[in-house]
Amino acid sequence: MPLVGFTMEQIGIVSYGAHIPRYRIKAEVIAAIWGKDGQAISRGLGIFEKSVPSVDQDTATISVEAIRAALKRCTLNPTDIGAIYVGSESHPYAVKPTGTIVGEAIGATPDLMVADYEFACKAGTAAIQTCLGFVKAGMIDYGVAIGADTSQAAPGDALEYSASAGGAAFIIGKTNVIATINHTLSYTTDTPDFWRRAEMKYPSHGGRFTGEPAYFKHITNCATNLMTKAGTKPQDYTYAIFHQPNGKFPVNVAKKLGFTMDQIKQGLLVPYIGNTYSGASMIGLASVLDVAKPGDRIFMTSYGSGAGSDGFDMTVTNNITRLARQKAPTIAQLVADKEYVDYGTYAKMTNLLFWE
Amino acid sequence: MRDVAVIGVGLTKFGELWDKSFRQLIAEAGSKAILDAKIEGKDIDALYVGSMSSGRFVDQEHIGALVAEVSGFSQLHIPATRVEGACASGGLAVREGYLSIASGINDIVVVGGIEKMNDVGGSEATEILATASDQEWEAFFGATFPGIYAMIATRHMHEYGTTKEQLAQVAVKNHANGAFNPYAHYQSPISLESVLKATTVAYPLGLLDCSPVSDGAASLVLCATEKATKYTDKPVKIIGSGQASDTLALHGRRDICTLDATVYAAKMAYKQANLTPKDIDFAEVHDCFTIAEICAIEDLGFVEKGKGGKAIDNKITTLDGSLPVNTSGGLKAKGHPVGATGVAQIVELTMQLRGEAGKRQVQDAKIGLAHNVGGSGATCVIHIMEAM
Fold first, then answer.
1. CA A153: distance to chain centroid?
2. Contact state of A212 with B16 under an 8 Å Cβ cutoff
């Protein structure tokens, strides 16, 4: 059976930007509230601290920050953008798009295609695939794919140590491409490892079921299929990025596939910012683009519960030297710019203290 | 009474078997045993299956008939019975099958044991397992099995000077054995340090002192010994079978460091086999927690009461010791799909006595003992087996 996907030529990323809220809470601070051993939890999850959105930050504001950073780096006008797709599992409204807020805020409306996406942690990479399709078809010159979240975790749940906030935006086009997307494909099944029903405040998950039959199965198959299609092997890549729900999973899946720590460390942010869900692998990609040189080959596999993985094989072009990368903060700078909060402040900012 | 032999065994891999259903596990273990015994459906006089809580783990009760159905025997209308005695359900199913042949009613019986535990989350599994404790006196007040066995352990430490290191060595030994068992849930050795440093579940028991939540199934074909050689060159005889009960709640016991059900069931089995503990070459004991193995080797009479910890220090129970215990990896490393455990113990004994245990083979194994416990010791069933 042929693998589902497209082969791209000279279409890819034109610019990129990201945003990570500057508040942080340490895993040990959360652990202390629940009478747990914070160091043991940090060791077990590979997460030391996570980002916390402020009271006035949500997926819409994070998306706007990310796309503004992307626009600062390039010479495009907002009106050049023909489509905006925002992937998130924490859209501020159940009914009313985030994408329209983002489009209006940057001045890209009204000649604009917009939709919000949801596919757990991979909605943003699905948006990249959509934009690729439109650009390849000639329906638009530039499309913006955003993955952003202010993810939720029930107080006391294991997710509370990881669920964080952040996002990244990628402008996809065929002019001044800084990284061509050579191949992309997806691997999708109906696997209910993690979900949140309508009207529910916090997500549910299948515990250990989220590992082997979910994350590992989908990423491994997607990555293997992608390398088969691209005719590549792990050693061909300068960098590899995997979805990062915690610090252990991406390291383990990388090793299993034959990638090294040297290949994945630039794109591995979860130990210091937590799991930004739809933002996670995309912030990892942004971090790689912060340092990438012409000729570098990048491998990325996202994962969204429910479940599916999107794989991307990319090559950095000479154009990256002409992109004004310094005009927006790097991921390293965003990670370093932080202020710690206590659990009470965290509870207030993430609306754990709510009443109806 | 007629003599009874095992003429076929079957096992699924134990572990987190996400891609196998309850039915598939039963069918796999059962068909392996039937093929091993080279019998056909029409040869089977009865089926017995042990499962602790299929109703709560996978919402399926009435599994006696289901076993017959998934084995493809529904048109044969074979009598099929489910047996329950918490974590001793499998051992009890073996005993029921054994008794039905020994009594002269049946000639060939298939026994199965199954539990599929990972379809519920970890905390729900703990809660379901706690239904084997006394609901009014233990579970209602929040007691779970790690807590109950932790009380046994702290008392054992207080009375006999047993140490946390000795407990940990039980897990280290069983993981070392499990590394040689291709059916085991965990097939890698662990260090003493990692057991001691593991997250505390209920002091003194850490995470690596506890058996895991596993999926798996095991199956046997039992046959009247006089007819066994018709089917196999290597029948293994059951020469002793014992069963005993005690209070469900730990506090009702004469001594919380002694599982009297083990003592009485052992007495019954040794008497029938006309053997003493010294005659046993190797044993599979119910190490749901590391302390349980220490109590077991004492209560089975292998060592004096209170000397179980010392026996671990002296390496008596390692694979090359004088009395290897849990050569399969035990519940700790092989895994503990509760209803399957008691049947899987007999599978291990059979493999050892046939000389088919590979890298974990006990040299010159002639007589083996299997010890299966329900709850914290309210039910115990013991079988002694001999190579023919």
1. 18
2. yes
Asked if domains B4-121+214-236 and B126-203+238-383 share a fold, the reply is yes
- Residue to substitute from A34, A42, A209, A210, interface B, most B β-carbons within 10 A: A209
SS3 assignment for B340-387: HHHHHHHHHHHHHHHCCCHHHCCCCCCEEEEEEEECCCCEEEEEEEEE
Rounded distance between C-alpha atoms, residue B117 and residue B87, angstroms: 12
Are the CB atoms for A265 and A276 separated by under 8 Å?
A: no
CATH for B126-203+238-383 is 3.40.47.10
Q: Please tell me the distance in Å from B335's CA to the nearest CA on chain A.
A: 16
Residue B18 with chain A: CB contacts under 8 Å: 209, 212-213
Closest residue to A212, CB basis, from B18, B121, B199: B18
What residue segments make up the domains of chain B, in order of their start?
4-121+214-236, 126-203+238-383
**Active-site annotation holds for B286:** no
**Which class is B4-121+214-236 in CATH?**
alpha beta
Q: Which residues of A touch B17 (CB under 8 A)?
A: none
Using CA atoms of A38, A44, A46, A49 in order, give the dihedral in degrees to the nearest 10: -20
For residues B347 and B9, give the distance between their C-alpha atoms in angstroms, rounded to a whole number. Answer: 6
Which of B175, B336, B371, B383 is flagged as catalytic?
A: B336
Of A37, A40, A208, which has the smallest distance from its Cβ to B118's Cβ? Answer: A208
**Per-residue tens of pLDDT for chain A, all 356 residues:** 445 554 445 899 999 999 999 999 999 999 999 998 899 899 999 999 999 999 999 999 999 999 999 999 999 999 999 999 999 999 999 999 999 999 999 999 999 999 999 999 999 999 999 999 999 999 999 999 999 999 999 999 999 999 999 999 999 999 999 999 999 999 999 999 999 998 898 999 988 899 999 999 999 999 999 999 999 999 999 999 999 999 999 999 999 999 999 999 999 999 999 999 999 999 999 999 999 999 999 999 999 999 999 999 999 999 999 999 999 999 999 999 999 999 999 999 998 887 76
In order of their start, the domains of chain A are 10-178 (3.40.47.10), 179-319 (3.40.47.10)
